[in-house]
């Protein structure tokens, strides 16, 4: 009889629509990334507070319609992502007609100096699969921002890694590439 009365009084708690996030799990993930980065740095002989040396090594001196510039934020440590900004500028007196084969405007790719892929910004993204045509007016700039995750930076080998900015737009009325890739050599010291 007591059991029946208890069952009769039972009511489920109202469910919240907010996603449940276990703070301990999120903190554990962050700690794991930091610990992995620290271990990787120690194995590579990098000092406790590493610095990131950046050297532009673009070997792409071919002519292109647009000029690109890649700038990197300040590297703090393996706990924080590194911000990167790609600025694409039309230096000509005429608009440049561009075609994109997806929703991606540009990509940022980290490879070993031998060319083995380590990380790409687009790997964790999904883009529309539709053609889109646009124009970049004379003197106009297009700015694309990226964040390089800490775990990608921690994976940079001792000989360094190439960071390549690639513009996804194709010139519609010219045989020239829209923008030549920009390549930096990143080394941890």
Automatic annotation (TrEMBL):
<dbReference type="Pfam" id="PF12690">
    <property type="entry name" value="BsuPI"/>
</dbReference>
<feature type="domain" description="Intracellular proteinase inhibitor BsuPI">
    <location>
        <begin position="80"/>
        <end position="161"/>
    </location>
</feature>
<dbReference type="InterPro" id="IPR020481">
    <property type="entry name" value="Intracell_prot_inh_BsuPI"/>
</dbReference>
<protein>
    <submittedName>
        <fullName>Intracellular proteinase inhibitor domain-containing protein</fullName>
    </submittedName>
</protein>
<dbReference type="InterPro" id="IPR038144">
    <property type="entry name" value="IPI"/>
</dbReference>
